Amino acid sequence: MNEDQVKGVGQQVKGKINEAVGKATDDPAQEAKGDMQQAAGKIQKGAGDVREDVKDSVKKNP
To answer: Which string of DSSP letters, residue by residue, matches 12-23?
Structure first.
C-alpha cells in the first residue's frame, strides 16, 4: 500500500463523517463537503492503486 492509497482512504472516512454530521445537523453545506471529500478520496486512492499496479507489473516483468 502506498501513501496515495492511505491518504485516499482517510479522505473517504473524513467525508463519510462530515456527511453524517451534516445529515444529523440538517446542514446541506456539511453534507456537500463530505460528498466532495469522499469523491476526492476515491480519486486519490484510485491513483495510488494505479501506481501500485504499475510498480507490481515492473517487478514481475523487468
So the answer is: HHHHHHHHHHHH
